[in-house]
Amino acid sequence: MKSSTKRQAPGSVRRRAATGATAAFLGLAVALGGGTASPAAAAESATLTGVILGVGANETQRTVTWYSSADTAQRLQVAPTTALVNGEFPADAANFDATGAANIATSGGFNRHATITGLKEHTAYSYRVGTEGNWSSTYSFKTQDFEGDYDFLFFGDPQIGSSGNLGQDQAGWQDTVDVSLAANPNAELLLSGGDQVESANTESQWNSFLAPDKLRQYPWAPTIGNHDVGGKAYEQHFTTPNTDRSGPLYSNGNPASNTSGGDYWYIYKDVLFINLNSNSYATSQGGGGDAAHIKYVTDVINQHGAEAKWKVLTYHHAIYSPASHAKDNDNKVRRVDFSGAFSKLGVDLVLQGHDHSYSRSYEIKNGQKANPDEKPGAADLYPGPGGVIYVTANSASGSKYYDITKPDSSGTSGAGNGADPQNPSNYWYNSVQNQEHVRTYVKVEVRSDKLVVEDIRSGTCAAPNSEVEQGMSCTNTDAGQPVGSTVDKFQVHPNHGTGQDLQVNVPNPAPGEFGWTIDGYNGLVDLGTAQERNGDHFEASGKINPITVSDNRRSLAPWSISANVGDFKDGDKTFSGSYLGWSPYVLDQGAGATSGESVASGYEDNGTGLSVSRGLAHADQGHARGGAKLGADLGLKIPDSVTKGGYRATLTITALSS
Known about the structure:
Layout: E1 2-7, E2 13-18, H1 21-31, H2 39-43, E3 48-55, E4 62-68, E5 75-80, E6 94-97, E7 99-102, E8 110-116, E9 124-131, E10 134-135, E11 139-142, E12 150-155, H3 166-183, E13 189-192, H4 203-209, E14 220-221, H5 233-237, E15 264-268, E16 271-275, H6 289-304, E17 310-317, H7 329-345, E18 349-353, E19 358-361, E20 364-365, E21 368-369, E22 380-381, E23 389-392, E24 419-420, E25 423-427, E26 430-434, E27 440-447, E28 450-457, H8 466-469, E29 486-492, E30 513-518, E31 531-533, E32 537-543, E33 547-551, E34 559-565, E35 568-570, E36 573-575, E37 580-588, E38 594-595, H9 602-605, E39 614-619, E40 626-639, E41 651-657
Parallel strand pairs: 12-13, 13-14, 16-17, 17-18, 18-23, 22-29
Antiparallel strand pairs: 1-41, 2-30, 3-4, 4-8, 5-6, 5-9, 7-8, 9-10, 9-11, 12-27, 15-16, 19-23, 19-26, 20-21, 24-25, 27-28, 28-29, 30-33, 31-32, 32-40, 33-40, 34-39, 34-41, 35-36, 37-40, 38-39
Helix pairs in contact: 6-7
């Protein structure tokens, strides 16, 4: 709440107060619900590990998942970082009850997760998990604008443990996370290409994957890789929004089995993200196969596609990759199954992992190169209706690289792996292919009129680079291709069909202002010469200079105008302001103005009169915007014992607005 105070004096008077950030803070505390653990549960101590921040259903949400050594009732506690005092959470911190279950035997312990809702934009938050007397460390994240441009980062298979040296793999992964976010501190999402670890249920590998503290500061959107799918640890460590865990989206058709699965989606600003469990691809295994994923994508886009400008899919098994998996039979099948469906549904970009090398496709439509004239490495792409770009990410940790393989004579469309006529060393479907045996990550800039996609080196041949440290060759040069240099960069521009699309950016509306003005010159209010009454007191009367109120705030928040008077003085002679009373009224209606109550002179009832603050007028929450003019009749009654003189006092006017 803001206030403005002014004493009456000659000259024009104007005061304005705009609604401020305090209102936003109070909105968070109200919006978030709460819950507490029972005393019995709180009494049992638990070791809390594996905390990771996850993506929510939209910009206003985040998920948090963690492991607990004990099966206790726990919660997630959140507050704006500015509300913490000496690291202590405020009493009105938001609380979200956690849910979870026992982990599988090889993981041990229990898993817990909760979803933060009601986040506000442009706010730093602190959070912790556990219960009273047994909290985790405090972690933090920040929100940014909930509309407009933003960047996200995509990471290919960390696959921690695949080199055989856990420490080296962790060091490479840690370095890529640190390097990428040091260069892009305002990135808003981290997307996974799958294969977080080498062995699905090996918790030492999961601990190494979760080691970077940035995974508790930036939301991670996981993807199930073929090395993640063979156990429940993936589902124990990650919570995903809008998740369909029905049988057809599991590779064996059985969600209750010791496997992970399911597809999920979320919208972040102008992008609809859809994430698929591409391990489920063959109905012979018991799942729903590619048809189940196509149905899921179709349903999500039909229901939510109009809510976003861009459609981005993420899954593990790269169908247009250049290396060891380029000729896998399952990927050849999906080039037929997926491509036509994605073209029909208007997908813009597909992000993939699995092949531990970098590539980006030409514009692919219905399993063929959409534009025969597109040149290798073109910087600007204008896919026509149905054109889709497929990107495969290289290793983000350096734990494993696959070398690029050679095309064959199997054809230059559909499931074929023939050569590109414009660049015979590449597959027909790939505009760019790259493998230097260095770590990289993909940055995607989401803009209103384009997607900017860039593959960036997060390392060189030097350590940490596990595969190279163990003897693999490396073609990178520190001088020519340093950390932060670009492997490939291109822009995807939207197709506008036969019309001309129009766009306008509408900013947040100005919050508006509340203000008040003393009308006109604000001259001295002269009550004249007091008249003797009944032989025991004097009376005088007058009117305050009218006060004009204006309120154009969009919040329609309440306001009030009040005033109080000091003692009347003439040199060293004085009498109390309590002898002044008033009768407020509204001269011109508007802005929800309601006049205050009349106040009698303290002479009549030995009261305080206007010597204490009294309401001139107010408006309630939800009132109409506009203006009003306020007035009041003044009535002074003083005992006849007051010494003759010319007395003056100051009426102090105070305005309050939420």
